[in-house]
Amino acid sequence: MSHPSSRIADLHAHVGTTVTVRGWVTHVRSSGKVAFVVMRDGSGILQCVLVKSQVPAEAWERFGTLTTETSVAISGEVRAEARAPGGHELGVTELEVIGTSPLDYPIQPKEHGVDFLLDNRHLWLRSPRQAAIMRIRHELEQAVHDFFYARDFTRCDTPILTGAIGERAGLFATEYFDEGMAYLAQTGQLYGEALAAALGRIYTFGPTFRAEKSKTRRHLTEFWMIEPEMAWYDSQDNMKLQQEFVQYLVGRVLERKAEELKLLERDTTMLEKVTGDFIRLDYSDAVKLINSKGSTTEWGDDLGAEDEALIVADYDRPVFVMNYPKQAKAFYMKENPADTRTVLCDDLLAPEGYGEIIGGSQREDDYDRLLGRIKEEGLPVDQYGWYLDLRKYGTFTHSGFGLGLERTIGWICGLHHIREVIAFPRLMHRLRP
RNA sequence: UGGGGUGUAGCUCAAUGGCAGAGCGCUCGACUGUUAAUCGAGUGGUUGAAGGUUCGAGUCCUUCCGCCCCAGCCA
Questions:
Q1: Residue that wins the pLDDT comparison between A142 and A300
Q2: I want to staple A71 with a disulfide (CB 3.0 to 4.6 A). Which of A9, A98, A324, A375 is the partner?
Q3: What's the Cα-to-Cα distance from A330 to each of A169, A226, A268, rounded to whole Å?
Q4: How far apart are CA A411 and CA A404, in angstroms?
Q5: What's the pLDDT at A75?
Q6: In the complex, which nucleotide's C1' lies nearest to the CA atom of residue A222?
Q7: Are A332 and A384 in the same domain?
Q8: CATH code of the domain in which A260 resides
């Protein structure tokens, strides 16, 4: 075709001229002598109008063959039209079929079960709601980079294949030449600490793997995590950065993805309150609070999902829970000088019941205490030689945290389950598509 | 791994132990401004699998399988 082509989003610049738009048919309607084709090109949706008496006979006949998801090139005059979604429509003069689509396209404009939709995830992504989630995800990922770039952090990539090191939760194992088993990384943090000693302030952004048999709306076996690590930051500096970070992420989505949030029917009143200071609760006070609400959790226990919900219920903003008992947390967290039963750490609980989105801590920088903790936990000391070296050769105060990308998106989008938040979720019972 | 559910048409779901159904989709027809168009007609089944009870099982029992939700683990 000889007409200039345009994306749907750019049509406003072509009103009154004839252009060609390429995309996929989402919907076909006919009223005898007037027909409507609604199409999608990834940038927007467009209604195209065919009037039988005004198009070539073969174009009218071709209209009759259009099915959902047929790929097409449609040419016509762009005009402003209040009745059309998006405010513009195309008065069709030519209609070319690029690729046909059989009648059994599985996704209908109606309610489907989640299992069916996930089986058809490769096609489900074409629906507007899923596309909106992907766009918000992209905005958040870009916002992460912008936030740290503006603060002169260096982005570092840490290995995905590792020897046994890191946290103790379930590991995916694979054979690694003559070196025995390799494990898919469940955190880049320990490597991040080494890089912080070299570069000062760093962050990682990469996939994380947990082989835990978790079947809840908050868990994936493969997810993406952002892990900053800062030299010369103590626990207070760490929490201040976390608050600024989360405020920035929420603000970016509110500012630039309002249309997508609206499409998701997200009530944003709670998100708008994230601008204020977050609530800070000491672990011991948190336990008193939940006990007063009927929880039987005792001092020393980790907080369960129900406990988190009880804590968050009183507040309209994210809540830091700080300084957990040593036995409830990982070996690398620094002992709290003010109460040596506890460590200098914080979990950030999202409002509205979305649970923990950040886990952070100041790291143990004393060689002997760290070695003692490694032994207490029964971890193989020889595997941690390089990690101990970071304390042997010029130890330094440092802190960091991990933010779960999918949980954060799920909260901001107001979704029930984080499986919708990643293009191809990996769950305990789902490895494909 | 524990507790609670669930499995029927391509999809979403009905059916007191008594003829397996509806809506959507799809097909055909009507309609010159539709918005998940509307209206009429048509199409659709190894009721997850195996065994058992019964005159008779989608329904009750046993075993197995799949999935969902909650919990634990965590982000």
A1: A142
A2: A98
A3: 11, 18, 35
A4: 11
A5: 94
A6: B75
A7: yes
A8: 3.30.930.10
The pTM for the full model equals 0.93
Any atom of strand B under 7 A from CB of A432?
A: no
Could you tell me the CA-to-CA distances from A89 to A21, A31, A39 in Å, in that order? 11, 17, 11
Q: Which nucleotides of B are covered by protein (CB under 7 A)?
A: 1-2, 10-13, 23-27, 30-37, 66-75
Is the ipTM higher than 0.95? The answer is no
Strands annotated E in A104-237: 154-155, 161-162, 173-175, 181-184, 201-209, 222-231
A222 touches strand B (CB under 7 A): no
Distance from residue A218's CA to nucleotide B6's C1', rounded to whole Å: 22
Instruction: Say which residues have a Cβ less than 8 Å from residue A294's Cβ, sequence separation at least 6.
Output: none
A133 CB less than 7 Å from any atom of strand B: no
What pLDDT is attached to residue A169?
56
The strand pair at A355-362 and A398-404 is best described as antiparallel
- pLDDT value of residue A212: 81
Locus of tokens 């191809």: A424
Q: How many domains does chain A have?
A: 2
Q: Which residue is nearest to nucleotide B23 (CA to C1')?
A: A110
> Which residues numbered 17-76 in chain A sit less than 7 A from strand B, measured from CB?
27, 29-34, 36, 38, 47, 49, 51, 53, 67-68
Indicate the residue among A68, A99, A130 that finishes a domain: A99
Domain of A269 in residue numbering reads as: 121-421
Task: Work out whether strand A88-99 and strand A45-51 pair parallel, antiparallel, or are unpaired.
Answer: parallel
Last residue of a domain, one of A65, A99, A133: A99
